[in-house]
C-alpha cells in the first residue's frame, strides 16, 4: 500500500502522517514513513537547496530539483520498501509538484506531468489524503512554528493558486484523492476521518 499526504502550507500533513504510521503499526503492519523533498541522502542536500530562503532558483531549475529528489527517492527508498511488503506513507509526492510548480509557479502542465512520470517511474499512490486549509489559516499555523522557508515566504496569491490547483486535482481524481477539510477541526477529528477513509478503501 502506498499512501501520500498532500496539502498547502500548515495543513497538518506531517502530524497526520506520523499518527497514521503509529495507527497502522498498532494493527501489525510494517510501515515506512518518508517525505519529499529529502527522503534520501542526496535528497537532503537537494531539499536544503530548494528551501533555504537565500536560494535564487529559476522555476525550471526548481522543478528539475524536485524531480531529481523524487527519482532518488522512488528507486532507493519507496520501491524497495514496497517490494519488502511494507506500507509506505509519504509526506508530499507527485501532486505537490503539480500544485506548486504548475498552480503556484505557472509552469506548463504537460512539462510537469512528463517530469513526474519520469521521476516517479510510473509509481502512483493507492490513496492520497489532501488536507485542505485556507492559505490564511495555513500560513498562520506555519508561522507559529517559525523560520519560514522559501515557499512559505511566497505571496498569499501564490498559496491561493496552490490550494485551488490541489482542489482541481482532487475533483479530477476522485477515486484516489480523499479531501479532508482541516480548517476548524481538531487533530483528533481529522485523524478519525483519515482512518474512516482508509477502512472504507482497504477494509479493516
Ligand atoms: P514540506 O517539507 O512538506 O514543508 P511543509 O511541511 O512546510 O509544507 O515541503 C517543502 C516545500 O516544498 C513545501 O513548501 C512544498 C514544496 N514542494 C514543491 O513546491 N514541489 C514539490 O514537488 C514538493 C515535493 C514540495
Give a structural overview.
The mean pLDDT is 97. α4 packs across α7. The protein has helices at 13-26, 41-51, 59-83, 94-104, 109-120, 135-145, 156-172, 187-202, and strands at residues 2-6, 31-35, 87-91, 127-132, 177-181. The protein is built from eight helices and five strands; from the N terminus they run βαβααβααβααβα. Strands 2-3-1-4-5 form a five-stranded parallel beta sheet, sandwiched between helices. By secondary structure, the protein is α/β, with parallel strands linked by helices. 57% of the residues lie in helices and 13% in strands. Bound molecules: thymidine-5'-diphosphate. Thymidine-5'-diphosphate binds next to α4.
Sheet-strand content, in percent, reads: 5-15%
In N-to-C order, the SSE pattern is EHEHHEHHEHHEH
**CATH topology title:** Rossmann fold
Q: DSSP helix count? A: 8
Quickly give the structural class: alpha/beta
Distance between the termini: 14 Å
Amino acid at each position: 500500500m502506498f499512501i501520500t499526504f498532500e496539502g498547502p502550507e500548515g495543513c497538518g500533513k506531517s502530524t497526520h502522517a506520523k499518527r497514521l504510521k503509529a495507527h497502522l503499526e498498532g494493527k501489525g503492519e510494517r510501515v515506512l514513513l518518508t517525505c519529499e523533498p529529502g527522503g534520501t541522502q542526496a535528497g537532503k542536500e537537494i531539499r536544503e537547496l530548494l528551501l533555504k530562503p537565500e536560494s535564487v532558483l529559476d522555476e525550471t531549475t526548481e522543478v528539475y530539483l524536485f524531480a531529481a529528489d523524487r527519482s532518488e527517492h522512488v528507486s532507493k527508498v519507496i520501491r524497495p520498501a514496497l517490494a519488502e511488503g511494507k506500507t509506505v506513507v509519504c509526506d508530499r509526492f507527485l501532486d505537490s509538484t503539480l500544485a506548486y510548480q504548475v498552480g503556484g509557479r505557472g509552469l506548463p502542465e504537460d512539462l510537469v506531468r512528463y517530469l513526474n512520470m519520469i521521476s516517479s517511474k510510473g509509481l502512483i499512490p493507492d490513496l492520497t489524503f489532501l488536507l485542505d486549509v485556507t492559505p490564511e489559516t495555513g500560513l498562520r499555523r506555519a508561522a507559529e512554528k517559525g523560520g519560514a522557508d522559501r515557499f512559505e515566504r511566497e505571496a498569499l496569491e501564490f498559496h491561493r493558486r496552490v490550494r485551488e490547483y490541489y482542489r482541481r486535482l482532487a475533483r479530477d481524481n476522485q477515486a484516489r484523492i480523499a479531501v479532508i477539510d482541516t480548517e476548524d477541526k481538531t487533530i483528533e477529528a481529522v485523524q478519525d476521518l483519515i482512518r474512516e477513509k482508509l477502512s472504507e478503501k482497504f477494509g479493516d
